[in-house]
Fold this protein.
Amino acid sequence: VVIFDAEAKPLTTLRGSAHDISKWAAMSLDANPDMRRRHRLAKHPEVKEYFRMPSYCAFDQATNRLMVCDTMRHRIQIFEKDSNYKDPQFNL
């Protein structure tokens, strides 16, 4: 996911940063033993934190949150804007 400034210049890229699986993913794994085994056998489990197919983004100005729908991983990742962050590059 690329974030642009008001002049359409790229500011940064989000690759995803999930640390746990969603409750819906957990329910899918619990309901499907084969999927659970495949999940445990993943060669590179660290890539699960990244987006697989982000399909929609929405920014909630009331809460300063960016929500990204990650279609192939069946989850929504939520990023909170920190207005007090000292480095402007990361104060999106």
